[in-house]
Amino acid sequence: MSPIAASNPYIGRFAPSPSGALHFGSLIAALGSYLRARAMQGHWLLRIEDIDPPREVPGASDAILRTLEAFGLHWDGEVLYQSSRTEAYEERITRLLSAGEAYFCQCSRKQIQAAGGIYDGHCRELGLTAGAIRIRNHAAVASFEDKLMGLVQVEPGFAGEDFIIKRSDGLYAYQLAVVMDDAMSGITEIVRGCDLIEASCRQLSLFRQFGAPEPDFLHLPLACAEPGFKLSKQNRAQPVDDDDPAPALLRALTFLGQAPVDSDSPERMLAQAVSQFTLDSIPRQREILLGS
Ligand code: GLU
Ligand code: ZN
């Protein structure tokens, strides 16, 4: 680590999935995590979460990088592609399986739904050798203190569930990849949208089971098209315009409760936004309806 990194231990990140171009909703997560990291004089890393090929849109990774550049959201170091990490994920799974910390499960979604929606550990002692792989969860996390949203609580059943870490189709689960990568990168605080606020409990369980230091969590309000529906490609969120970043940047700053900026180049706008950034101005609401 550079001397600067050593004296400034904050490490944040933005971790988009290449399932489409950046739209206003994902810009908020990018901008919020960027402003917080820079205001803490920390590092801001970029990770492309490309381990779900069926959901990936060709060209989306490169388009995301170009958009971040056009918006002046310059990251530190190399981009980490999750697709380059599959060996590490597989090794971890193998170790968990042989230590009895994970097991194969062949229950269908239907069976689990019929049993109340929470997995009851049915396959834990069956010694199966194929199927989905579940963590034997002995570090249930039912609540945590979010840096913005305050106390977050989930149902005890959900918290203690043996959740999936590798899917039956062979894809690594988001929860496993995200925790292994955040741990490897030394992320000290995760800033992202409230759609993942409850997943944080599962992720905290994994950090504990892996004996990795736990990051802080800071969840930003979600931009919603309708109550309960975040902006997404599915509800026709338009990609942000790389050729004219200023208006979207201003809107995103306003969305995050930050004071307006008066310059016009994205770099200068961001420098000003960093210098006047206040966490306390971000609305403590899990969702904000756009156009309301
Ligand atoms: N890749 C996830 C997404 O785009 C975000 C992961 C995270 O920030 O933990 O929704
Ligand atoms: Zn099962």
TrEMBL record:
Zn(2+) binds at C105, C107, Y119, C123. One of its GO terms (biological process) is glutamyl-tRNA aminoacylation. GO terms for cellular component: cytosol. A motif ('HIGH' region) lies at residues 16-26. It is an enzyme of class 6 (ligase). Catalyzes the tRNA-independent activation of glutamate in presence of ATP and the subsequent transfer of glutamate onto a tRNA(Asp). Glutamate is transferred on the 2-amino-5-(4,5-dihydroxy-2-cyclopenten-1-yl) moiety of the queuosine in the wobble position of the QUC anticodon. HAMAP family: Glu_Q_tRNA_synth. This is Glutamyl-Q tRNA(Asp) synthetase. It comes from Shewanella cyperi. The gene is gluQRS.
